[in-house]
């Protein structure tokens, strides 16, 4: 989808693939080309969305039901798209978003087993045909990615999931890329950081 000349790029991948560092690098590459870039994330991206993010990542005494999780994600997403992403694109700014709808199909659909049709209908209602121009998937084997997060941080509600959950998510992302190579770009994130950055720089040159 084109929004003036500015592009909407999303970055996806399981936890531990190095999204934050590489997104920052991607933004720098675009800025060096003289483009104006907005970096944002989901869940989050607005003050309300960031509060929703805290709720989504937290653990409560009761279990967070997948349906509750899904509706919270979309409540935040609608505000984010309408109040941040679309206005930025309309001003000619490129938008790089750390996760977007693919994460919902991957985590709530493939990971939690929710019906994809429910996600389709929420998308239809909230986004219509609005989708990213390009989606970069940072890919690494689950054991490598999880070893990175387990070393580095206190784990949130998602990060505490089992390896099998992340395996389903990884496979789902790879399947999206295989089915739609026009939109998805897979980067081998198991390589050392310098090589990953190199792959990203090459991608940025082409888009
Ligand atoms: P982050 O760690 O990449 O910032 O994302 C926070 C968590 O939110 C991550 O574990 C994946 C999860 N998530 C979903 O489950 N569904 C979604 O639609 C999005 C955007 C994120």
List the defining traits of the structure above.
five-stranded parallel beta sheet, 8 helices, alpha/beta, single chain, Rossmann fold, binds thymidine-5'-phosphate, about 210 residues, about 55% helix
Largest sheet: 5 strands, parallel
Number of helices: 8
Strand content: 5-15%
Small molecules held by this entry: thymidine-5'-phosphate
Helix proportion: 55-70%
Give a brief outline of the structure:
The chain is an alpha/beta fold and 207 residues long. The chain has 8 helices and 5 strands.
Architecture blueprint of SSEs:
Elements: E1 8-12, H1 19-32, E2 37-41, H2 47-57, H3 66-90, E3 94-98, H4 101-111, H5 116-127, E4 134-139, H6 142-152, H7 163-179, E5 184-188, H8 193-206
Parallel strand pairs: 1-3, 1-4, 2-3, 4-5
Helix pairs in contact: 1-8, 2-3, 3-5, 4-7
Bound molecules: thymidine-5'-phosphate.
Structure, described:
There is one protein chain. The protein has 207 residues and is of the alpha/beta class. The protein has one domain (8-206): 3-Layer(aba) Sandwich (Rossmann fold). Helices cover 56% and strands 13% of the residues. It is built from eight helices and five strands; from the N terminus they run βαβααβααβααβα. The chain has helices at residues 19-32, 47-57, 66-90, 101-111, 116-127, 142-152, 163-179, 193-206, and strands at 8-12, 37-41, 94-98, 134-139, 184-188. Strands 2-3-1-4-5 form a five-stranded parallel sheet, sandwiched between helices. Helix 2 (47-57) packs antiparallel against helix 3 and helix 4 crosses helix 7. The two termini are 13 Å apart. The mean pLDDT is 95. The structure holds thymidine-5'-phosphate. Thymidine-5'-phosphate is lined by residues 15, 19, 41-43, 73, 98-99, 103-104, 107-108, 158.
């Amino acid at each position: 989808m084109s929004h003036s000349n500015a592009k909407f790029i999303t970055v996806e991948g399981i936890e531990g693939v190095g999204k934050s560092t590489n997104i920052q690098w991607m933004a720098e590459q675009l800025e060096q080309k003289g483009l104006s870039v907005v970096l944002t994330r989901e869940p989050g991206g607005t003050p309300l969305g960031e509060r929703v993010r805290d709720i989504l990542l937290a653990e409560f005494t009761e279990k967070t039901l997948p349906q509750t999780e899904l509706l919270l994600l979309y409540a935040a997403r609608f505000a984010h798209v309408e109040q941040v992403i679309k206005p930025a694109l309309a001003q000619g700014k490129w938008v790089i978003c750390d996760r977007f709808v693919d994460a919902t199909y991957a985590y709530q659909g493939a990971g939690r087993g929710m019906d994809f049709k429910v996600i389709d209908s929420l998308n239809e209602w909230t986004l219509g045909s609005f989708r990213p121009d390009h989606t970069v998937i940072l890919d690494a084997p689950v054991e490598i990615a999880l070893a990175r997060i387990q070393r580095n941080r206190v784990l949130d509600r998602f990060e505490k999931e089992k390896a099998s959950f992340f395996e389903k998510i990884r496979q789902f992302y790879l399947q999206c890329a295989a089915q739609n190579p026009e939109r998805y770009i897979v980067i081998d994130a198991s390589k050392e950081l310098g090589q990953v950055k190199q792959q990203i720089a090459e991608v940025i040159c082409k888009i």
